[in-house]
Amino acid sequence: MSDRDSVFVEAPARLHFGVLDLRGALGRRFGGLGAAVPAPSLLLEAVRAKRLTAEGPDAERALGFAQRFLAHHGLGEGARLTVHRAIPPHSGLGSGTQLALAVARALAELYGLPADVIGLAQAVGRGRRSAIGTWTFALGGFIVEGGRRVAADAIAPLLARFPVPSEWRCVVAVPLGSPGLSGEAEAAAFEHLPRPPEREVERVAHLVLMQLLPALAEADLPGFGAALTDVQRITGAWFAPAQGGVFAPGASETLVRRLAEWGAAGVGQSSWGPAVYGLSGSESAARAIAARAAELVGPGGQVFEGGFAPTGARVWRSESGPNS
User: What's the Cα-to-Cα distance from 184 to each of 19, 71, 188, 190, rounded to whole Å?
Assistant: First the structure.
């Protein structure tokens, strides 16, 4: 590619559906379930430049990830980064990981570096606990990852990736409220969370293996939604000491309850929130739920409705303006 070519990376948001094991008694911690959704999404543009700059929403974070990536590879090169569209930050939708990986992928394309997702994640310091965002960036769809070995730095392995039936819809509501935990605050919360009862960990594994995944394979939305809701309520209780309840108190908790009342087949909170979600089997039903959610989140809140992302991040090139 020429120095005038721009690299564009578009990445879907990720929903985190739950952690498999906070105990680590079998040698691995965390593990989890999640899926990619096409809205909200991130759109990043990068072009070679004499120095490193960034503009647009989340520009400061993008610049930090770029500096880390270039330092990791020992490069003194520059680039002009433009964030055209951002995922709402600190909302439970994986904005940090998707931005970090998009920046890393764009710079890898610009400078002819390896673009495998594990290498990209390690270069920008992502995937230290959950690898759901890493694998949804790479593959899209529904993801199951196997957790991290205790005291190891390797990114959690991908256990399974399933396509989500095209007729399934998801309503994502992001109310105004306290941002979800991230960074050092999240790490501290994990360190102080009590170990959940072994019986509950076993129950989550049983639900996932014998109800949720079979329902997904058979396109059984009621079965999938029921299992997902059960997993969310069990694992949400594990995080209650840090977030104040099974779901983040206030608007998030209210929205989860209302989404279920409005007919969503499965409901929950993504990661630490405040983003919550509800599943539906048809576009018309999902749009009706989304309209009611929009009234509840009020001014400043956001509601997204759509299917699930069948692929991970998209990468393409086009000629940009003169290099600077």
Answer: 19, 22, 6, 10
Q: What amino acid is encoded at 184 in this protein?
A: E
Strand partners, 303: 173
Q: How many CB atoms lie within 10 A of CB 4?
A: 13
- C-alpha dihedral sign at 219, 223, 226, 229: negative
How far, in whole angstroms, is CA 197 from its chain's centroid?
Answer: 27
Q: What residues are paired with 34 via a beta bridge?
A: 16, 143
3-state secondary structure of 72: helix
Measure the CA–CA gap between 316 and 100, rounded to whole angstroms.
Answer: 17
Q: Which residues are CB-contacts of 228 (< 8 A; sequence separation ≥ 6)?
A: 17, 18, 212, 266, 268, 279
Q: Spell out the per-residue pLDDT of the chain, length 324, in tens.
A: 556 789 999 999 999 999 999 999 999 999 999 999 999 999 999 999 999 999 999 999 999 999 999 999 999 989 999 999 999 999 999 999 999 999 999 999 999 999 999 999 999 999 778 999 999 999 999 999 999 998 788 899 999 999 999 999 999 999 987 777 677 777 787 788 999 999 999 999 999 999 999 999 999 999 999 999 999 999 999 999 999 999 999 999 999 999 999 999 999 999 999 999 999 999 999 999 999 999 999 889 999 999 999 999 999 999 654 333
Q: Can you state the angle between helices 95-111 and 132-139, rounded to 10 degrees?
A: 50
CA dist list (Å): 235 to 4, 188, 204, 279? 49, 18, 8, 19
What type of residue is 77? E
DSSP string covering 201-222, please? HHHHHHHIIIIIHHHHHTT-HH
Residue 22 has a CB neighbour count (10 Å cut-off) of 20
- Is the separation of the CB atoms in 100 and 66 below 8 Å? no
Residue with tokens 């009342």: 261
Token duo for residue 193 = 């969370």
